[in-house]
Amino acid sequence: MSRHQLLPTLLLQIQKIHTTGQHLKSKTGAEHRWLQRHFRDPFVKRAKERNYRCRSAFKLLEIDDKHHLFRPGLHVLDCGSAPGAWAQVAVERVNAAGSGEWMLVCNLL
């Protein structure tokens, strides 16, 4: 399978990871209640709006606002980066998408 054929397959697999309302029928009572709480959580909704991978991004934003950890031009190493929301915040705050800055993210599965 060529690299160009593999990418759409991987994207489809990634999309299947997220649980949506249509899959709630196969869940137990406790799982159903947890998912309902999860979908009503305001931070989950904000994370989806801002395209963060998970709601924990807001924890790092709050820490950075209080302690000023990140500055433009800073180099960042994120170890144990799954699911990646903190890496998203760090890239935004240090402007790693610009020139000269970089960020290294690693995760052992």
Automatic annotation (TrEMBL):
GO cellular component labels: mitochondrion
Domain Ribosomal RNA methyltransferase FtsJ residues, every copy: 52-96
Keywords: Methyltransferase, rRNA processing, S-adenosyl-L-methionine, Transferase
GO MF entries: rRNA (uridine-2'-O-)-methyltransferase activity
Transmembrane region(s): none
PANTHER family linked to this entry: RIBOSOMAL RNA METHYLTRANSFERASE, RRNA METHYLTRANSFERASE 2, MITOCHONDRIAL
Name of this protein: rRNA methyltransferase 2, mitochondrial
Lineage summary: Eukaryota, Metazoa, Chordata, Craniata, Vertebrata
